[in-house]
């Protein structure tokens, strides 16, 4: 009977057979002295062979810090050589390699020939053997392995990347597992190689497990929920965490699909959003009632590859999906991506149904003398974008002339941003201010106060000094693009501005001999005003001055010098003889010819002046009467003289 037909029977008795039939695995006494071991440093390959016909058992131990290979002959341990971690090993027919400690190989090759009855065996007992790359069989010279002549017996722990019994280089291998096999991928195909397990035999897989339609003893433990499980039939058990399930029919799927329940994750259609809008789409997500994991939402830009849990806030097109991580008996699930957009809120959405803005700070309908205050409808917020961008959103915004005026005119590139207070939905930052308040285009921004100043005094360029102007004629200029009224000392001054240039010249004349206080006030249509005050002093002039003395002055007369002048200066008198240069100490009264010189001092309005008059003081001609009384001849008499002279 062919061994292939005895697979199930041999699977149950293999361990006993290996012990009883050929005496391997549990004894090291029936060996010959023909065990040989060689190591090729170039290929890092250790080869286990025999030169006789007896079965040989090789041990791998650690001595003096090195891994050594030895064979036991008649109870005597003979050291054969050294082997290194991550080496390749070749086990020839009639040889058993039975490591005594954990060891790692890159590749393991089991050789057999149908013309040689003895087996090649890797026996793993109570230790861990790691095969980094492949386990394979090497046929004999006729290309056949010979049925049931290549064995791997594991009662410890075998770690291997892939255990594939369907490969051609694994034909007729027999693996008996009563320990643990850990692999990324396992394929069991008893029509090519043979696998059987004892009561303790388990398989641990991370990526995939595949088997034929035969029953499998021992559980298959899956490390991950996405580990794939495929079986053509037969009974076998799959364990994942605390969950196990026995399958009796063909299956093909992941652990999550085969063992775990559907969390019934659902994501309803989400709406589009406006930029800045607060949102929480978690209410659109639902799971099965018994699901206790934490489902979440993930997002990505439409042009991106990977999802993340970070909520998008910028304008753009995005995908959203719900993700439920594996939890308890429930598998992880991801919904299909769903498109949504974040768009800027249209200005028309905020200013609809008659809602409008108000501007304050306007004078005479369209003139702006300073800052404007723009107040939005209730529930609408605003902030500058091209100006004052550091300010917070508010229901009103102060528009300074520095913000929105360039070269004296409204800057068409003044940009603002609007926001709906209820949910922070926000417009584009390049929203033109005049699209929000179109009337701003018609406003006249008055940046300057009216200009008022003296230009000329008596046709010569001059200016006010210490609040005073001296001259007969003063010319002033008043200028403003939006000139409205001019007042002179409170009286409205009529002017002609038919040319629209806003420039007015005013001439003021002084009044001789007196000062005049002037206050010139100019106002413009924006309500700005300038006031200029000064005192106008007339130019100083020569005063009128005349000096006269009575025509006849006699010695002893008290006479007056008559002075006539329009000056308010101090008048002084000096007297002298006409033929002398020295002045007299006082007004003369004795006879003689005199000059009186009158000087008037300089005053605020008059120059100094000097005038003189000549006069003579005469002695009087006395009057006299002589009276001789009648007398007799010879009588003495005395004439009587009457005179006004004191002589």
Question: Mind explaining what this structure looks like?
Answer:
- Strand 52 and strand 53 (609-618) form a beta hairpin.
- The chain is rod-shaped.
- Residues 1-32 have low confidence and may be disordered.
- It is 5% helix and 45% strand.
- It is mainly beta and 647 residues long.
- The strands form 13 sheets. Strands 1, 2, 6, 8, 10, 12, 14, 16, 17, 18, 19, 20 and 21 form a 13-stranded mixed β-sheet that branches.
- The N and C termini lie far apart (207 Å).
- The chain folds into six domains: 3-200, no CATH class; 202-260, no CATH class; 266-343; 355-445; 451-537, Immunoglobulin-like (Sandwich); 542-647, Immunoglobulin-like.
Unreliably modeled segments? 1-32
Give the fraction of residues assigned to helices: under 10%
Shape: rod-shaped
Distance between the termini: 207 Å
Number of helices: 5
Question: What percent of residues are in strands?
Answer: 35-45%
Q: What structural class is derived from the secondary structure elements?
A: mainly beta
Radius of gyration: 66 Å
Count of separate structural domains: 6
Note the main sheet.
13 strands, mixed
Q: In total, how many beta strands?
A: 55
Please tell me the overall pLDDT.
88
